[in-house]
Amino acid sequence: MTDAAITTSPSTVAPGQRVSLLRVLGPAHVWALGVGIVLVGEYTGWNFAVDKGGSLAALIVCWFIGLLYTSVAMIDSEVTSTVAAAGGQYAQAKHIVGPLMAFNVALYLVFAYTMLEVSDAILVGDLIVTVAGTEGLERHAFVVLTIVVLAWLNYRGVLMTLNVNFVITAIAYVAIIILFFSVQPWSQGTVLKLGDLITPENALPYGWIGVLAAFHFGIWFYLGIEGTTQAAEEVRSPARSLPYGTMAGMITLLIGAAMTWYVCASLLPWEYLGFTFFPLFDAARATGSGFLETLLFWGTVLAAVASANGCINDAARAWFSLGRDRYLPTWFSAVHPKYRTPYRSILFLLPIALAFAFIADLNQAITFSILSGLLGYTFMSINIMMFRRKWPLGSIRRGYTHPFHPMPAIALLSICVITYFAVFLGYGSQLIAMTLFYIVVSIWFHFYRYKYVRRGDQFTMPWPKPIGY
Predict the structure, then answer these.
(1) Is residue 467 in a domain?
(2) Per-residue confidence at 17, pLDDT binned at 50, 70, 90?
(3) How far is CA 361 from the centre of its chain?
(4) Residue 222 domain-assigned?
(5) Cβ distance 347 to 156 under 8 Å?
(6) What is the domain extent for residue 339?
(7) Helices and strands: H and E segment counts in the chain
(8) Who's near 457: CB < 8 A, 6+ residues apart?
(9) Closest CA to 72 of 84, 60, 89
């Protein structure tokens, strides 16, 4: 895209000119997209790992899953800074593996982000209803309001959307930091009671099998950081913005996850921590400070809103990419002539998110999001191996080269296998149902939709022929 196209106002598109997405984002926006999607996992969701294996199990999986997502961030930064196109992992799959894998990866992304968006909206509604304490008040109106308003914001433009995300994500993250330092973490026993709440008898109440089971929800600490790749076609400098924004986001989340576990495990009994939907908010209430309670209430709301906002952005880009490459009807590939957003994809996914928000509970929505995310991470470990083998270092220009290859890919695949087993222990039927669903849609794509795909048009990178072809 030329400099003129970049700086032209979205409302001044010449007649007959092809309307495309705008390159207007920098590293801070990439950070806001990644951390904004994920931060809600530190306000809720991760703590269900405590129910599976105890407080110490949640800490163990926090760091093991942190290793998984550090591998994800490094792998994604290399491939996406080289394949800088909307759709993220979908764009990677169509260039490196093939159409069937690309179609499935796009569906993984859409389902992961849509169900995460649903989880966020449910959380907002449940928290407001809980705090209001009004008899007969239901969450549904708040759920609908959250999803519809954020869809409108995404419809109006990506720059405004991610500027908003940057502000509210920063506020929600600062709320965690304020809570952490307000409870005097350097002096155990003054406010925090970690030694009383986690004893040798209850540290791992279900033994090491509980640690394995905790991997299921431990993934919620970081789920969605890979969403930074969805902005690849809208950043000004992919080779700089994507690696910097993604890795800075991962460092931010690792620090936040450690603080979150330490405060919550030191203020709440593990039996209660494993069941509450609002661990940080309840930890703030346990301090007896009205200021901290109010702060963490708004922190929870803003974290959920930021996550849902980023999820709408990412799911729409994946769906838009499928339409642009004719994997789905090209109707979905339309870009708004004024706002330069994939508006039809945004509007199409809106009622789907609303429907799931009314029929699913929070645990189910989280599980479906995790399962789709896991399938995507499994693909990433295979994808980077194929990428390095087909186009070795030096054969093409890379925006970023991740170190220690192939260790990150091996670590990622190994932790994915462990997490599949953990999900099977608690939600085996959902895992089997989702696997069957992807098999069925793969058959549909192969025998019906593939004939509409123009394979030559979808390869946009000026690369040499891969080794072995």
Answers:
(1) no
(2) low
(3) 19
(4) yes
(5) no
(6) 30-392+403-455
(7) 19, 0
(8) 325, 326
(9) 89
Cβ 95 vs Cβ 352: under 8 Å:
no
Residue where the block lists tokens 């509450």: 276
Tokens of 424: 């099977």
pTM of the entire structure? 0.89
Tally of structural domains, the chain: 1
For residue 435, the number of C-alpha atoms closer than 13 Å in the C-beta half-sphere is 10
CB 120 within 8 A of CB 263: no
Residues 6 or more apart from 70 whose CB is under 8 A from it?
250, 254, 408
Q: Which two tokens stand for residue 168?
A: 């509210």
16 in a structural domain: no
CATH number for the domain that contains residue 411: 1.20.1740.10
DSSP 364: H
Mapping DSSP to helix (H, G, I), strand (E, B) and coil, where does residue 235 land? Answer: strand
Contact 182, 327 (CB under 8 A): no
pLDDT digits (tens, 9 = 90+) for 292-327: 999 999 999 999 999 999 999 999 999 999 999 999
Note whether residue 463 is domain-resident.
no
User: Using the 8-state DSSP alphabet, how is residue 466 labeled?
Assistant: P
From the centroid of its chain, how far is CA 451?
32
Cβ density class 255-285: b for 16+ within 10 Å, e for less: ebbbbbbbbbbbbbbbeebbebbbbbbbbbb
What's the pLDDT score for residue 7?
37
What are the structure tokens assigned to 222, written together?
A: 């970081």
What's the pLDDT at 430? 86
Burial of 291: CB neighbours in 10 Å, binned 0-12, 13-18, 19+: exposed
- How far apart CA 42 and CA 112 sit, in angstroms, is 17
